[in-house]
Design brief:
Layout (H helix, E strand, L loop, with lengths): L1 E4 L2 E3 L15 E4 L5 H13 L9 H15 L4 H27 L5 E3 L15 H6 L4 H4 L2 E6 L2 E6 L3 E3 L8 H5 L6 H15 L2 H11 L1 H23 L5 H18 L2 H11 L6 H26 L2 H12 L5 H4 L4 H6 L3 H15 L7 H14 L8 H10 L1 H25 L10 H25 L3 H20 L8 H28 L5 H28 L4 H17 L15 H5 L7 H10 L4 H18 L1
Antiparallel strand pairs: 1-2, 1-3, 4-7, 5-6
């Protein structure tokens, strides 16, 4: 079969790399038995001639999808990598939720100078009655000064803390209470601002590779942790230590952007059927990280020792560069076919499906190598990113996802990190219940995303979360120890965790391969705007009006549910989009006939698919 284009002849294997001309300028000489495939090939060439990289990149990525299926898209290799990358996902959870314990503010009051004894929180003597107010809130920050004019309240400079539930924290060691309370919140704000660097790490990931960027971020995290511990054990003043600790949280937040890169790496090493698992596996390990940091502080009751243990846990991940290979899909996109072949051979070896023993795979690689020898127009990363936002469809879709992810993080942090403050009792038990609530939410997300569509479960989760948040202040004063409001907060944590899991899947399925890591990073970076405001909004319950933060969280979640109505359904798509044009069409319904046509249009070796169809047909006849 040949195509003649103004004197130019294209062989069958070169049909997808020859330059396309308008339909009227093409002569065809096609055998009758191949006419159907030839028309599809011709339609593909004329339909994509004006699309950036449409003739090359999708074909490569389609070949990668075929090769991944041949070597095993979810075998022993993928399970090992899911476990290794999942262990890394524990670190962001431990770092983020360590704030709940290492920066906790136990119940406290002003210290009274006793003559023959040392003051403690549990002591109450006639001397305490003389210097402290009967008002519990007042004696936390003020003490009576006895003068010739009588008693006058003044701010105290030393405090004693209730050590029933907490040992040492940065609040107890550096006296971050009363008018210094906001300094504690700044440390968490710095961490969230640092995580906004996910846009930068996403660009690095798309430019230098997933594995290389992950190694750099892990190295940064290890260096920051070790240097911070050295400064924390020096003789510096408390204020200088606080400044260094805040800078450390900023850099640590940037290093934690490995989470979004890990998600992209897992998505690109498996098939479309495992997208939900690839996204939720990180959520499962993230939940494990919350449990570990709670257990570490529970047994140590020392914030410095907790940070040392976290530092030691990070060190082995420096060897991940040798354990976690690069994404074969990314290598193919950047035309590094030799490295891509090595990765695929390794996958096939571990999965017990040798790549070199399959002639069909060799022909796929031969076709890819021939394409790389033909000079083609390359579109820069910036052009692809600009084309994404020039598309009205993708621009609207991205803005919706930006708001949804921002609301997700704001509510997740506001409810999750503030749930222990609803009562002064049982902080560890309540936090443990919140972990299980999040775990149930992740499982619910995986079940719904696997069995049902993406969009409507997401809307339902947002609505149920909004309703649960409204109930928190409504029933806060009902029952003993605010149990009803705690139960409502646990349900809110469950539903926002499920919504967040689905939102991650939506985000990863929205952006094309060429900028998927950057797109996810950009979305996470914008979502941090909501995360930065979460601690400040939560403080409104103490400083302004208790129901106010919950009204804000509930209203924002309700708006997110409305916005989700305008998102497309992505569950039925056979593969991740590779170009902006494919991402635009991801919202269109596809029937079985059109799905087959699209798959054949993207095939780099249609003769291989013909052989597969013949083999399948023969098997069906033999079974019959």
């Amino acid at each position: 079969m040949t195509f003649k284009t103004k004197g130019e002849t294209c062989s069958k294997t070169q049909i997808y790399t020859c330059k396309s001309n308008p339909l009227s300028n093409i002569e065809m000489s096609v055998p009758d038995n191949s006419r159907r495939h030839s028309l599809l090939d011709l339609f593909q060439r004329t339909n994509t001639q004006d699309q950036p990289n449409a003739s090359s990149t999708p074909a490569k990525l389609k070949a990668i999808d075929q090769l991944l299926e041949n070597v095993g898209s979810f075998g022993r290799y993928q399970k090992i990598q899911f476990f290794l990358v999942g262990l890394l996902a524990v670190v962001p959870a431990m770092t983020a939720f360590s704030y709940v314990f290492i920066a906790a503010t136990p119940d406290h009051r002003c210290q009274v100078n006793l003559t023959n004894d040392t003051d403690s929180f549990d002591k109450w003597t006639p001397v305490h009655e003389q210097f402290l107010s009967n008002n519990i809130k007042e004696r936390r920050c003020f003490i009576y000064e006895i003068t010739s004019q009588g008693k006058q309240l003044k701010k105290c400079s030393n405090w004693v803390f209730n050590q029933t539930y907490y040992g040492t924290t940065i609040s107890t060691d550096w006296n971050l209470v009363c008018d210094q309370l906001h300094l504690k919140g700044i440390t968490q704000n710095a961490y969230i601002i640092g995580t906004s660097g996910s846009l930068l790490s996403g660009i690095m990931s798309d430019k230098f590779g997933r594995r290389t960027t992950m190694f750099w971020l892990i190295l940064l995290l290890a260096v920051v942790f070790n240097f911070t511990q050295l400064f924390m054990h020096s003789n510096m003043s408390s204020m200088n230590k606080l400044i260094i600790f805040t800078l450390s949280r900023l850099l640590t937040g940037f290093a934690q952007t490995t989470y979004s890169i890990s998600l992209v790496l897992l998505l690109e090493m498996t098939s479309a059927k495992r997208r939900v698992l690839a996204s939720n596996i990180l959520s499962y390990f993230y939940t494990l990280g919350e449990l570990l940091i709670m257990g570490i502080y529970y047994f140590t009751r020392d914030w410095a020792m907790t940070m040392w243990i976290l530092t030691v846990y990070v060190m082995p991940f420096l060897f991940y560069y040798c354990c976690v290979p690069e994404s074969a899909r990314w290598l193919a996109t950047t035309r590094q076919l030799r490295q891509a072949r090595k990765v695929l051979e390794r996958i096939g070896l571990i999965n017990g499906r040798e790549l070199n023993n399959v002639d069909r795979n060799k022909r796929l690689f031969d076709a890819l190598e021939r394409e790389t020898r033909i000079p083609q127009k390359r579109y820069s990363y910036t052009n692809v990113l600009i084309s994404l936002f020039q598309s009205s469809v993708m621009r609207r879709r991205c803005l919706i996802i930006f708001y949804i992810m921002m609301t997700n993080l704001m509510v997740y942090l506001g409810i999750g990190m503030g749930i222990t403050s609803l009562t002064s009792n049982w902080p560890y038990e309540i936090f443990l219940y919140s972990i299980f609530a999040e775990l149930v939410g992740v499982c619910l997300c995986q079940f719904c995303a696997t069995k049902f569509d993406r969009k409507y479960p997401l809307i339902i989760f947002f609505l149920l979360c909004s309703l649960s948040i409204v109930i928190i202040p409504t029933v806060h004063d009902i029952g003993r120890d605010h149990l009803f409001s705690i139960a409502a907060a646990l349900f809110a944590k469950l539903f926002i965790s499920a919504a967040q899991g689905l939102s991650w899947i939506y985000t990863s399925e929205t952006f094309p391969t060429t900028i998927r890591s950057t797109g996810v990073g950009l979305t996470v970076g914008i979502a941090r705007i909501g995360g930065v405001w979460a601690p400040q909004i939560s403080l409104l319950a103490q400083s302004v009006w208790f129901p106010l933060p919950y009204i804000i969280f509930s209203f924002a979640t309700f708006i997110a549910a409305i916005c989700a109505l305008f998102l497309p359904e992505t569950r039925t798509k056979p593969a991740l989009p590779d170009t902006v044009q494919q991402a635009e069409r991801s919202g269109e319904p596809i029937d079985d006939t059109e799905l087959k046509i699209r798959t054949k249009k993207l095939s780099i070796c249609p003769e291989i698919e013909e052989e597969e169809e013949e083999e399948t047909s023969l098997k069906d006849h033999s079974i019959a």
